[in-house]
Design brief:
single chain, alpha/beta, Rossmann fold, about 15% strand
Length: about 475
C-alpha cells in the first residue's frame, strides 16, 4: 500500500517544527512566525484566441516583521496556494539568514509558459501587476517581487512599466521590483546571483576541514564531482562557476528531456549552446544518455545539486542517493521524509534557505541601488584607481623594479558594479555559513544544517517581533 507524499508546505512546516522545539522561544511567538500574514488569491480574464481565459494567480505575504516583503513570481501550471505559501515562508527565513532586511513573500501564476506566446505572457504579467497594485500588494516599501521559475528580466520589465503607468511620478518606482534588465534600472550580476551564491555555499562547506574530515573527504573544491538536476538559470550558472572558479567537474546533467553522463566532465558552456540549438541535451558529444531521466538521483558523486523544482528527492528515491553532499539550489527539492532517510545515511544537506539565497541578496543590492538612484562604484572607482596607481608607482620607485603594464592595470583597477556585487554576495554567504555553523556546533546540539539554519532565522525574526513590542 502506497502512502501519500507530504506536500511541499507540510515539509516546510515539519522542518519549522523540528527547529521550534529546540529554539526555546514562546509558543505564541512561534505560531506568529509560522503563519502567513496575508494571502491574496485572484482570478482575472485574458483574451486567448477567439475567446477569454480565466487565469488563477496568488501573492502571499508571509511576514510583516520587516518591510517591504520580498519574493519572486513563479509562472507554472503546477502553481497552487499551498506551494506559494511554502515559498513565501522560506523567503522570510532566507532573508533573516543572510541579513537582508525584508519580510518574506511569493507570487504564483498558474500558467505553462510554453503554451503562450510572448504577447500573451505580457498581457498576463501586466494584468497580474494591475491586480497587485489594486490591493497594495506591490511597492518599493510594501512588497517587492522578483523573478522565479518561469519568469526573468523580461517579465520584471513589464511589471515595472505597468507599475510606473499606474503610479505616475513616484520617485522610487524603480524599486517596486528587482531582477530587471540592467538597462532598465537593474543591477549587474543579478542573473548569475543565485548560481553564484550556490557556488559560494558549496565552496565554504568543501573548505571546512572539520566537516570534510567527518565525511572522509579531502578539503577543497578542486576536482570534486557534481551532478546538476535542472539546466535553467540557476543550474547553468552553478555549473559554470563551480567549474570555472572552483575547478570542480560536472559529470552529469538532468533536464526534462533526460539525463546525460560523462565521468570525464561536461562543459556546461558548450552544453547550453548545444541545447539552445538542438532544443535538447540528449546527444551532446562525449556523453551517454541514462536509461531513465530519474537516474540522476543515484549517480555516484561528491555533490548533488537539485536546481529545478521542489520535492525532487523524496521518500521514494532518497535511498538511491550516493552523493555525500546535497546542496539545495532549488526551493524545497528534498522533502522532510527524504531528509530523515538521507541523514541516517550520513548525507550532509545544505538547505535551500541558505544555499540559494544569492538571488535575494543581490535583489537587495538592486533595491538599494534604485533607492539611492546611483550606480554602485560610480563615486569611488576612479579615486581608488588613482590611489592604487600612486601606491604602485611609489613601490616601483623605492624598489627600483618595474612591472608590466598588464600587471599594473590589474593591481590598480577600481571596482566596477559587478565587482562590488560579487564581493558583497561572497561576504554575505561566508558570514551566513559561519552563523549557521556556530549554532550547529557550539550553541545547540543540532546535527543537521537545516535545523541550524532555521534556528538562526527564528532567533532573528523573533528578536524583530519582540522589539516591536508585540511579544514581551
Amino acid at each position: 500500500m502506497s502512502h501519500k507524499q507530504a506536500s511541499f508546505y507540510q515539509s516546510v512546516q515539519t522542518n519549522f517544527e523540528k527547529a521550534a522545539k529546540v529554539s526555546g522561544l514562546p509558543k505564541g511567538l512561534l505560531a506568529q512566525i509560522s503563519a502567513c500574514n496575508a494571502v491574496y488569491q485572484m482570478r482575472f480574464p485574458i483574451k486567448s484566441g477567439n475567446g477569454y481565459e480565466v487565469i488563477e494567480a496568488y501573492r502571499v505575504q508571509h511576514s510583516h516583521h520587516r518591510l517591504p516583503t520580498k519574493g519572486g513570481i513563479r509562472f507554472s501550471h503546477l502553481v497552487n496556494q499551498e506551494e506559494v505559501m511554502a515559498l513565501a515562508s522560506l523567503m522570510t527565513y532566507k532573508c533573516a539568514i543572510v541579513n537582508v532586511p525584508f519580510g518574506g513573500a511569493k507570487g504564483g501564476v498558474k500558467v505553462s509558459t510554453r503554451k503562450y506566446s510572448e504577447e500573451q505572457l505580457e498581457k498576463i504579467t501586466r494584468r497580474y501587476t494591475v491586480e497587485l497594485v489594486r490591493k497594495n500588494f506591490i511597492g518599493p516599501g510594501t512588497d517587492v517581487p522578483a523573478p522565479d521559475y518561469g519568469t526573468g528580466s523580461r517579465e520584471m520589465a513589464w511589471i515595472l512599466d505597468t507599475y510606473v503607468q499606474l503610479r505616475n511620478g513616484e520617485l522610487d518606482a524603480a524599486a517596486c521590483v528587482t531582477g530587471k534588465p540592467t538597462g532598465q534600472n537593474g543591477i549587474q550580476g543579478r542573473t548569475e546571483a543565485t548560481g553564484r551564491g550556490v557556488y559560494y555555499a558549496t565552496r565554504e562547506l568543501l573548505n571546512d576541514e572539520e566537516e570534510m574530515k567527518a565525511l572522509k573527504m579531502k578539503p577543497g573544491t578542486e576536482g570534486k564531482t557534481i551532478v546538476i538536476q535542472g539546466l535553467g538559470n540557476v543550474g547553468t550558472y552553478t555549473g559554470l562557476i563551480c567549474t570555472e572558479e572552483g575547478g570542480m567537474k560536472v559529470i552529469a546533467v538532468s533536464e526534462i528531456e533526460g539525463t546525460i553522463y560523462n565521468p570525464d566532465g561536461i562543459d556546461i558552456d558548450k552544453l547550453v549552446k548545444y541545447r539552445k540549438k538542438k532544443k535538447t541535451i540528449i546527444g551532446f558529444p562525449g556523453t551517454k544518455k541514462m536509461a531513465k531521466r530519474e537516474d540522476w538521483v543515484g549517480i555516484n558523486c561528491d555533490v548533488l545539486i537539485p536546481a529545478a523544482l521542489e520535492s525532487q528527492i523524496n521518500k521514494a528515491n532518497a535511498k538511491k542517493v550516493k552523493a555525500k553532499i546535497i546542496v539545495e539550489a532549488a526551493n524545497g527539492p528534498v522533502t522532510a521524509e527524504a531528509e530523515e532517510i538521507l541523514l541516517k545515511k550520513g548525507v550532509v544537506i545544505l538547505p535551500d534557505m541558505y544555499a540559494n539565497a544569492g538571488g535575494v541578496t543581490v535583489s537587495y543590492f538592486e533595491w538599494l541601488k534604485n533607492l539611492s538612484h546611483i550606480r554602485f562604484g560610480r563615486m569611488e572607482k576612479r579615486f581608488d584607481q588613482r590611489a592604487y596607481t600612486q601606491l604602485v608607482n611609489k613601490v616601483e620607485d623605492l624598489t627600483g623594479k618595474k612591472i608590466s603594464k598588464k600587471e599594473k592595470t590589474l593591481l590598480t583597477k577600481g571596482a566596477d558594479e559587478i565587482d562590488l556585487v560579487r564581493s558583497g554576495l561572497e561576504e554575505t554567504m561566508i558570514q551566513a555559513y559561519h552563523e549557521i555553523r556556530n549554532i550547529k556546533r557550539r550553541k545547540r546540539n543540532v546535527k543537521e544544517w537545516r535545523t541550524a539554519a532555521f534556528l538562526v532565522a527564528l532567533e532573528k525574526v523573533a528578536s524583530d517581533y519582540m522589539s516591536l513590542g508585540i511579544f514581551p
